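Researcher: Going back to the complex we discussed earlier. I've cleaned up the inputs and rechecked each line, so this should be the final set. Can you rerun the prediction on the complete assembly and write out the structure?
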Amino acid sequence: MGGLSASLNIALQSLLAQQDGISIASNNIANVNTPGYSRQVANLVETPPVQFGHSLFGTGVELQSVTSLRDSVLDLRVNQETQQQGQLNAFIGGGQQIQALFNQTSGTGLQGPLTAFFNSLSQLASNPSDINTRQGVLTAAQNLASAFNQTSANLATQQRNTDLSLTQTVSQVNSLTTQIATVNGQVSAATGAGQNAGPLIDQRQQLLNQLSNLVDISEINAGHGSLTVTTTSGTPLVVAKQSFALSTQASANGLQDVYSQGADITSSITSGQLAGEIQIRDQEIPSIQNSLDTLAFSLANAVNTQSAAGTDLNGNAGGNFFVPPAAQAGAASSLAVAITDPAKIAAGQDGSPGDNANANALLALQNQNIVGGQTPLTYYSNTIYKIGNDLASAQANEQSGSTVLQQLQNLQGGVSGVDINEEAANLIRYQTAYEASARVSAVIDSLLQTTINTFTP
Amino acid sequence: MPIRLDPNLLPSLLTSIQQTLQNETTASQELATGRSVSQLSDNPAAAAALVSNFNQSSADDQYIQNAATLQARFQTADASLSNVVTVLTRAITLGTEGANGTLNAGDRQAIAGEVKGLISQSLGLANTTYQGAYLFAGTAVNTQPFVQDPVTGVVTYTGNATTTSVQIENGTQLGENVPGSQLFQNASGGVFTSLQDLYTSLQSGNGIGAAVTEVQSALTQLSTNRVFYGNALNQISLSDNFLSQDKLDLSSQENTLVGANPAAAASEFSQAQTANQELLAATAKVLNLPTLFTYLPV
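Model: Rerun complete. Updated structure for the full complex:
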């Protein structure tokens, strides 16, 4: 049997425990809008009973622990989905800039200048001896060349910009991994000391989520609450309280490669913003650049060959119309018209000024499969299709991914989110218990008073 | 125990609001521009198809413009040849007059004088230029094709016999010229030789009848070959009709590819607007929902 003083003790312990409960509820309410916060619950337990005679008497309540409610599997899924979204968003950002260079409805792209060039040849065929018509061909050809030059230069600029932003992303990754390593050390220390590491884990999860947006990561539980973070291909980023910084080094083509401890890991980065940027820089832009080069190279060579087969206004054999491209790579950026004198355009084949046989042959190139087995325009429209389609599928994936991410975040919120009503109810429960415990101690106090007064002379 | 729901409804609501706003923007953009495809990624296949559509439409414009140049040139050529026909007909009349036995030498000399005038007139017509280019010189358009020897009066052809053709619509080539040699010369002499013979015979009074026959044969040849220009003009006007129709077809194809359906866009717009407003109202209500605290005594 406990006796009055034991009961008083129970009441006091209860006051403390209810107070802890109130404090936790109020902390939950305070953090209702804090990103990454996981709601906490007070784990109240009975204190060990004591035995008097044949009976066990309870000894009250105590706060055993505080638990942060989170679902680590959901956290992982959210991080994975965030990596996908990071990559897609970076790709979409780059893709939108690229497609703006090829938007014929707003007057950019190569269809206009290509068509205008062949139209000028069509005009030349109908009036081969007219010097103004010939000048028109030169102007159209120069416009075509500068359209190629500009589009190619714009792509190159975008490639350099993406390269720059990739370097910035790498330094963001490093800043995050440094922070994660610090928090990781704290989590491990707190866990080791048997403390509630929940708030630290919240912080670490928040940082890991930000890191996921940038690069693909894999989290391995290293025991004692510590995490080992690597890229999915195994490059270490955080081990215990140490972080491993990524670095960038210029490669042969002048673009920055991503290195970790001396090894080039550029090609092994598979998602996150970094991967999206690498994809735009190393695949998308070079592939379009290559299409433009192929188009410019093949067109220039075909026109030159046909030009050489003809005769100019003065009856001389035709020369190169375009400056012959040195190689296919870079042909678009260097395309230039070789002729400056309109009389030198080889419109005829018999040496007389009124002959349009070669102008007809030049015009016919537009319907011949001179570029990679396709006509110049078909080749160009296939390039357009690829640009649009790459972006459209990235957008579709991003859209479905964002729905998935939203659902995962909702599920995460279901586990970890603070519900004001729930906290209000808890607050009332603890308040009521607190008030009751206070009453209990008052009652015991009064009983003690009675007892003392009774035996006092 | 039921699954605990995310107590924070705001992110989902905001996403939905953004979505309706985006739908609203898309629909209003479609209405404003009349296009459902304003970026390649909106419809890559349509954007790619548009490349050849724009190209063809622009090529048609060029054909129409070329046709105008050709038409003017053909009309000039045809008018010149028509004048040559008049000249030759007059020569035949004069020759027939001259062959009349009642005329004396003086009368024949007078007629011969007129025939001489006709020679130089037809020489001028045979050397007709259009925008500085000789029309009946084959492809040697910068050199005068018919030159008369000042002493002998013999006219020689310095042009060539090359014919050219030009594309007047996709895949259709149209012959562009008849060389002067084919129009004005033949085995028995042609325009200038026959007129020259007529002139000589009128002067001498011998062989006028034969000379008239020569002129008649030259006229027949010219008329036969002149038909080319009439046909070409005809074909150009046919092709013009075709091109105009083709442009209409292309424009309707463009509309099918990338054009917005105004009725659908308008209805999408109003749907998006309604959805947006309803969502905003709902969000406002959710944000103002009472909590347990509302009912607790202070």
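Model: Worth noting: Helices of chain B lie at 10-33, 44-98, 105-126, 180-184, 191-204, 208-258, 262-287, 292-295.
Researcher: Good, that matches what I expected from the previous run.
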